[in-house]
Amino acid sequence: MAGTHLTFLVFLSWLTVCIMTTNAYKTNSNVVDVKVMCMEREKQALLKLKDDLVDKNDQLSSWGTSDDCCNWTGVRCNNRTGHVYALQLNQQKLQLNDSTLEKNYSMQFKWDISSPLLELKHLAYLTMSMVRATSIPQFIGSLKHLMHLEMSDCDLSGTIPHQLGNLTRLVFLDLSNNNFHKVESLSWLSRLPALKHLDLSSTDLSGTTDWFQAINSLPYLHNLYLSDCGLSLVISPPLFHSNYSPASLADIDLSQNSLTSSILPWLFDFNNSLVHLKLCYNEFLRKNPKSFGAMINLESLDLSENHFEGEIPRALGNLGRLESLDLSWNSLVGEVPDMKNLSFISTLDLSENKLNGSWIENIQLLSHLEYLDISSNFMNGTISEISLLNLTKLTYLDISSNAFVFNLSLNWTPPFQLETLIMRSCKLGPSFPQWLRTQRRISHLDISSNFMNGTISEINLLNLIKLRYLDISSNILQVGA
């Protein structure tokens, strides 16, 4: 009997331990599942920040409506600690008004950027694009956990504080399109070893002598945007080959500067990594830009508005991943090379050069074309229904001011639906092109100076229901019933 009693006590003890263990597990699981609310100090900082803002569209209306600031618009918290780690105030886009782009500041600071941000000591992501402010406060450099800082289009003036160099964890930095005073040095960039994305577009760097060295000190830089910065550069060869890793840069925009061909050897170090390269509106002067043909991973290349001379390099025709190519407004001559390998190209602009030949007859090979501009050249050849047969995706076509011959039947129905058609000075006449009646999406039409005669009536333009711009001047047309 005693043995049986002992066995029962052992069993009861084992069962008790199991129940306690199960309850403890459930309790711990509940602790894990419970969402921690935001810290009171950080909540009060956010409310003070709201008081310092003019919020015209009431985008922060949720702020203060609940005790948990983690549920407020634009606020993200760490589920384990409750600390605010991300703050997105606004990302209002530019709005079109009276044919000009104007910034619609629906949110702005009453005074300087509010110091309560300092209470958000665990902030890693701060986005406040299109939030109007006066300047970047030096205390931003104290937010040591910041990895993402976006303050573009904020109407900021003053200087870019060198204290930003204290943000050693920063991966993304966008200060573009502001009104900073002329920057004298970018040496603070060298203290941001983790930086992958840098956008200082429309910042006056014309007085900066160390911008190139600063960029070269960022080993993991992936995206570089320095458009419209007043940059000029004359580099001696030793500076090209620093400790910089040439395997990372994939997206470069150095457009609208005063750069010359002296920077090209540095760019060619990224032949294997570059995907997007924009160099338009510079001062490049080079006999033949053939070295760009070695950038085997390029998807977009913009060399427009420069002074490139000579023929279009045949090597460009081998860039099999290229989707967009803009060589317009240069001094390129000769025939367009074979582009049959550019099977993915959707945008091609060769306008305003001195190109000749009958390349247009083989245009059907580029079946993904959506945008084609070859205007203002000396091209010839016959444009037939066969040459346009595969261009089913075409929406923009400008072939003005060339010497093409048209072989299109009166009842031809194009395989595309254009939105823009510019055929100025193309000798389309003598009759009005009836195939235009099939184009129901055209909003911009220019067929001026084409020696067309006869009568144009409402019937001719019956299906052009989206037309907003029409130029049929310098023809011999009469308006009929």
UniProtKB/TrEMBL annotation:
Domain Leucine-rich repeat-containing N-terminal plant-type span(s) in chain numbering: 41-78
Task: Fetch the SMART domains from UniProt.
Answer: LRR_SD22 (SM00365)
Q: Which GO terms describe its cellular component?
A: membrane
Q: Which PROSITE patterns match?
A: LRR
Task: Please indicate if the UniProt record lists Membrane as a keyword.
Answer: yes
Give the way it sits in the membrane: Single-pass type I membrane protein
Q: Where is the Disease resistance R13L4/SHOC-2-like LRR domain?
A: 274-474
Which keywords, in A-to-Z order, does the entry hold? Glycoprotein, Leucine-rich repeat, Membrane, Receptor, Repeat, Signal, Transmembrane, Transmembrane helix
Name the Pfam families on file: LRR_1 (PF00560), LRR_14 (PF23598), LRRNT_2 (PF08263)
Q: Would you say which domain of life the source belongs to? A: Eukaryota
Entry protein name:
LRR receptor-like serine/threonine-protein kinase GSO1
